[in-house]
Amino acid sequence: MVKKVGILYGMESTFPQAFIEKVNELGEGKIIAEPVIIDKLQQGEDYGYAVIVDRISHDIPFYRAYLKNAVLNGTYVINNPFWWSADEKFFNNALMLKLGLPLPKTVLLPSYERPSETSETSFRNLKHPYDWEYVFNYIGFPAYLKPYNGGGWKNVYRIESREELWEVLKETGQLVMMLQEEIIYEKYYRVYCLNRKHVHIMSYEPNKPFHLRYSSEKETEDHRLLETIKEYTLRINKALGYDFNTVEFAVRNGVPYAIDFCNPAPDADPHSVGSENFAWIVEHAAALAIEKAGEYVPGKINIAWGDFISNPQ
After folding, report:
1. Is residue 303 very low, low, confident or very high in pLDDT (cuts 50, 70, 90)?
2. Strand order across the beta sheet in which 187-194 lies
3. What does the alpha-carbon distance between residue 178 and residue 89 come to, in Å, rounded to a whole number?
4. Which pLDDT does position 215 carry in this prediction?
5. Class for domain 184-263, per CATH?
6. Is 126 helix (H, G, I), strand (E, B) or coil?
């Protein structure tokens, strides 16, 4: 029986095609890859994929529903659509604090505007005024204001004072935001993690334009630091259960602080990440898909639903 691997994607053109070609090369005709094509979605129906790699359902709810239906029929979805639907950055920070990782100090802020269809009486449990003095003293300035469940550096602001915070909050509308301590770093890394066991560490500069963020310069690295980053990356992804993710670390005084670790559809374009990093991610993503396709049994649920947080080690 030939097993099918699908990839669900949007505007990307480089990674999906390279992934398909690599799976078809490694699959040797027993496992084949193709773009997922959807012309109907009937409840409970099996549309024949052993594995689907998801690169776009966070933006398209119809696709997320398609993937959840696929899981019920035995498809292994990378990444788990049930957990991805529930996950958010503030919870991630709280979980990693429990696991002992160094993190920037972070607090959650109520949205500047009330959510639609709510009124003042909807917020009887929220104290007015919020304890802003505690927030400012705990976090300090400069700080970063970012959505608690966002991504792609959207709606991220560097804030230098409480006065600036009041002005910027007006722009965030109904978004729930986190205020986070700024880590003044000497080095910054972005790290691919595949299959919760393969780690690829990349020098990264988040303040540069996208096409210049991944450094191609070879430098003498602190191997002990890189081993710590690798260990933290594995600990994070085992706890969250992501098969395909990136983690970002800001290194201050030799200590890697986990800054962002909820990127289940990370950048994988050679024009930004560079050819070497691109080759690594294509090779390992294809190998992961083939491994999971080999385990596929039609109709047998082939994805964990919630073991990661309770058994992070």
Report:
1. confident
2. 198-203, 187-194, 244-252, 255-260
3. 9
4. 73
5. alpha beta
6. coil
